[in-house]
Amino acid sequence: MKFSALIFDLDGVLVHTDKFHYLAWKSLAESLGITTFDEKVNERLKGVSRMTSLEIVLSLGKKEYSASEKQAFAETKNTLYREYLSKMTPDDVTNEVRGTLRFLKARGIKIGLGSVSKNAPYILERTDLEKYFDAVSDGNGLINSKPDPEVFLKAAERLAVSPKDSAVVEDAAAGIDAAIAGGFYAIAYNLQYAKANIQIKDFSLLKQII
Ligand code: B16
Ligand code: MG
User: Fold this and answer.
1) Which of 97, 146, 170, 188 is most buried when burial is the number of CB atoms within 10 A of its CB?
2) In three state form, how does the secondary structure of 5-49 look?
């Protein structure tokens, strides 16, 4: 075995909650008269915190807002985002993802989560994914978002593995940068990014990489 552990990003890797983030930010942007928020700008929100995402969205408009107004906007976006999440079921996880996680577990590979989302525990619960994880590191209590490696280093610590024996699976450039900064092997999933150690399009290819 090449790796003792695999640490997974959540949004865009295990589940397609990235599309719900996009729809919720788009709705907030439109309510503020911002019409230039699109899928391309959305790429920059992947892996970064809620408040940093909000700053990127607001930078497309011309108005300045107070800290309390920004807090309210972030809450509005999160409420809408959680409405989408509340409709998720275990069927939102593909057989390919579930089968690969089962395979890795059976091979004795430790499985960790490295997501900067504060909603990660809720998503794992809705989709019945909790049972596959030996350790969860998420946005709750996190100080630095990706591209800082903090979220992955915490996952490795909780799994009691060294980063050099672990791989990170990510769909965002900020996440690949974070993995490399932390000393992990970086696997880009559905992402073209030359800095990654390897790029894959099929999730089940992980079975061969380990
Ligand atoms: P929340 P990941 C990240 O999750 C998302 O990619 C990013 O778009 C989002 O802003 C961030 O979580 C915070 O999410 O508002 O739910 O706390 O990709 O690290 O799993
Ligand atoms: Mg992601």
Assistant:
1) 170
2) EEEECCECCCECCHHHHHHHHHHHHHHCCCCCCCHHHHHCCCCCC
**Ligand at shortest distance from the CA of 16:** 2
Q: Does the pLDDT at position 1 exceed 90?
A: no
| Token pair for 207 | 């079975």
Backbone conformation region of residue 155, classed left if phi is above 0, alpha if psi is from -120 to 50, else beta: alpha
* CATH class of the domain whose range is 18-85: mainly alpha
Query: CATH second-level architecture of 5-15+94-209?
Result: 3-Layer(aba) Sandwich (3.40)
17 lines ligand 1 (CB under 6 A): no
Counting residues of the chain whose pLDDT is more than 70, the rounded percentage is 100
Q: Where are the domains of the chain?
A: 5-15+94-209, 18-85
Dig out the tokens for 100 from the structure.
């690969």
129-173 confidence digits (pLDDT tens): 999 999 999 999 999 999 999 999 999 999 999 999 999 999 999
Question: Is-catalytic flag, 11?
Answer: yes
Half-sphere exposure (Cβ direction) of 89: Cα atoms closer than 13 Å: 1
